[in-house]
Design a protein that fits this description.
The complex is a heterodimer of chains A (259) and B (425). Chain A is an all-alpha fold. Chain A contains 10 helices and no strands. Chain A is 77% helix and 0% strand. Chain B has 9 helices and 18 strands. The longest helix of chain B is centred in the first third of the chain and has 16 residues. Chain B starts with a helix and ends in a 21-residue tail after the last strand. Classes of the chains: A mainly alpha (259), B alpha/beta (425).
């Protein structure tokens, strides 16, 4: 198992280079696509907030920056979530013909997620400079929580990937789910206090990871260390488990797609 | 070339290293898509909880795509797989390459396998040929360094030239296939699985492919070859398996296998090849002056020949009803094979041979006498017409007949009538 992972590094790298360069070569706006969703979302919510259409509490950061930064993080999570299903579905013909370590597909997608985040980072840095947001020393810890965030997304995606190849329902359901999930995650609003809604947001495993990443980058005070560690531990354990499931399930999937 | 390869590979004899061992392998498939997907989920679930999949029993709507197949492949050996479409050849290759798990039985593989089932796997149409070579070869299991070593050879072999830096979507299908083939054969695997890919590209490239395969064999690469072209298999493989509907019918020396396979192919057509066509007489108003009544083959004594035998005399007999005097009738006999596509193999017309065949009113029989039939066994289809100049009297689109043989004619394209003699001086 570990040997396969090691062996798939190179293939994963090749696939990643292939996918990324193909993506940008067939696009006019190119890397702008990494920023645009965050900017559009921020503009929309800032307008709504200023017009008092929605009422959002105190966010600690200037609101546009808050939305943009959070959206960038949320997008990274969603990419990690959709990555495995997408990768495996796209690679169907390849899976049906060549026996290569299937981990490579997942690794390559994770790599792509981090690459996209690196581009988003340009926006985030620009944002911090523009709004003169103070940055604490804890900013060097953000990669840890970011990795956990990506891991959580990949874990769920990986679990769904074999099923996603068999049934189209999975990818359709996933895009619907992420739309709903966004509202349960403190992306455009701060963490709510009290009430059923707050309870739901607290239950959401993305909340502690996303909030911690945001806090580490800005204030440096982690509001919910317990939640963060619990979700992180679950993510690490879960990814191991889903990896095994993925490995066991893939031969059956391959047999069905090509028969 | 064939003989050359054989001599050189005879070094790799029966005792050489065992590369592939297939033992009692079976695989079942389901024809219904929904059901098939559901079974997939079911299989995954039982596999995860460690249950018994009960692989030996068929579930509803399932059938055996492969049943109890066993064979071995040693270093330097070449094995041919023959069988009609849907016989399970590709499924067997996919099981060997590890893509799918057999439901029962066991497959053991030692060494690197390159599946030539997968020409251009992982090619992205937007990227250039160069980038795609890297992606493709790394999927096939090569490290970056190994790819770089082989890179010039691959480009050289594919004969793509300057187009290597153009996106693959601008390639012609032949170019893409050539690039794919070039990648695959440069992996230098221990076992090469080839599924119907030798029909890629033009004649020159095909020759090059065959040459390359011969070279790999000299180095000890083993082959499993699937082809519908018997000559490909005869040229490359010394042993073969004959599959039909997932069952292993016969295994052994390629020549025997191919003969059996060809015989079975012929048998499928014999119901319609009765050896005689009889047409109902036309009313005189529709007649153009000469009508074909029946067509058949006869022996020298005039008895009906249900099957023509290679090397033996056969007289084509065309019986007609003539209503007028025709000075010079032209009988055309255009022969095609039916077992392998449509291809004209013989054209005989009496006019081109300056034969003066004169017809008088009444019932006449025109014979085309072959003192020795030169056709090899198979089912043939003849188009027969009766003309005078450009005017057609009557014709038969397809007269199907079977040719049998009493001796071995595999590896022959036709039978050469001959006699033997020793002259002592």
């Amino acid at each position: 198992m570990w040997r396969d992972l090691l062996g798939s590094r190179e293939i994963a790298w090749r696939l990643m280079v292939r996918d990324i360069s193909a993506k940008y070569r067939q696009s006019l706006l190119g890397i702008a696509w990494a920023f645009l969703p965050s900017i559009v979302m921020a503009v929309g919510f800032t307008l709504a907030n200023n017009a008092r259409v929605i009422n959002i509490g105190f966010t600690g950061l200037p609101y546009p920056a808050y939305v943009m930064f959070s959206t960038a993080l949320w997008q990274t999570f969603v990419e990690a979530l959709n990555g495995p299903v997408q990768a495996v579905t796209m690679a169907k013909p390849m899976l049906a013909r060549v026996n290569f370590p299937r981990e490579a597909l997942i690794l390559s997608k994770m790599g792509e997620v981090f690459f996209n985040f690196a581009i988003k980072l340009i926006l985030i840095v620009a944002l911090f400079i523009w709004f003169r947001i103070p940055v604490g020393w804890t900013v060097i810890l953000t990669p840890v929580s970011l990795i956990h965030l990506v891991l959580l997304g990949t874990l769920i995606g990986l679990l769904l990937a074999p099923l996603g190849v068999l049934y189209q329902d999975v990818s359709k359901g996933l895009s619907m789910l992420t739309g709903f999930w966004l509202f349960l995650t403190p992306v455009v609003y701060p963490v709510p206090k009290g009430g059923t809604f707050s309870f739901l947001v607290q239950l959401n495993p993305v909340t502690p990871l996303l909030v911690t990443t945001r806090e580490l980058a800005t204030t440096g005070i982690v509001s919910e260390p317990m939640g963060f560690w619990v979700v992180s531990a679950v993510s690490w354990l879960g990814i191991l488990l889903t990896w095994i499931i993925f490995r066991l399930a893939m031969p059956f999937v391959v047999e069905r797609v090509s028969s | 070339m064939t003989n050359l390869i054989k001599q050189e590979t005879s070094v790799w004899n029966k005792d050489s290293e065992l590369l592939i061992e297939v033992d009692q392998v079976s695989k079942k498939f389901c024809r219904d898509l929904k059901q098939s997907l559901f079974y997939g989920v079911q299989d995954i679930a039982t596999e995860l909880i460690g249950g018994n999949r009960n692989g030996a029993n068929l579930r509803k709507k399932e059938f055996w795509a492969l049943k109890d197949i066993s064979f071995q492949l040693r270093r330097g050996q070449a094995l041919g797989l023959v069988g009609s479409n849907g016989a399970g050849k590709s499924t067997l290759l996919r099981i060997i390459s590890g893509l799918i798990k057999p439901d029962t039985g066991r497959v053991e593989v030692r060494g690197r396998i390159a599946p030539l089932i997968a020409l251009g796997a992982g090619f992205n149409p937007i990227l250039t040929g160069r980038e795609n070579i890297y992606a493709n070869m790394s999927i096939l299991g090569l490290s970056k360094q190994e790819i770089e070593e082989r890179f010039p050879d691959v480009i050289d072999f594919s004969e793509i030239g300057d187009a290597i830096d153009a996106p693959v979507q601008t390639y012609s299908s032949g170019m893409a296939a050539r690039l794919g083939f070039a990648c695959a054969v440069h992996i230098e695997p221990d076992v090469l699985l080839i599924d119907e890919v030798l029909s890629v590209g033009d004649i020159k490239f095909k020759m090059k492919c065959h040459h390359r395969l011969a070279l790999l064999r000299e180095k000890g690469t083993a082959f499993i070859l699937v082809s519908h072209n018997q000559y490909n298999i005869l040229n490359v493989c010394e042993t073969s398996l004959y599959l039909a509907k997932g069952q292993l019918i016969l295994s052994g020396e390629t020549e025997t296998i191919i003969r059996k396979y060809e015989e079975d192919l012929c048998l499928q057509g014999t119901e319609t090849a009765l050896g005689r066509i009889t047409l109902p007489p036309k009313p005189k108003s529709e007649s153009l002056g000469l009508d074909i009544l029946s067509v058949c083959f006869q022996d020298q004594e005039g008895n009906l020949l249900p099957k023509v035998i290679t090397g033996k005399p056969a007289y084509l007999s065309v019986k007609c009803q003539a209503y007028k005097h025709i000075k010079n009738i032209n009988l055309g006999f255009l022969l095609s094979t039916t077992s392998e596509g449509e291809s004209r193999i013989l054209t005989i017309t009496s006019a081109s041979e300056n034969q003066d065949l004169e017809i008088f009113p009444g019932i006449v029989e025109i014979q085309m006498q072959m003192s020795s039939c030169g056709l090899i066994p198979g089912v043939y289809s003849a188009n027969i017409y009766l003309k005078e100049g450009v005017r057609t009297f009557d014709k038969i689109e397809s007269f199907r007949f079977t040719v049998k043989s009493e001796q071995n004619t595999s590896r022959c394209l036709f039978y050469q009538p001959h006699t033997w003699k020793v002259i002592n001086h």
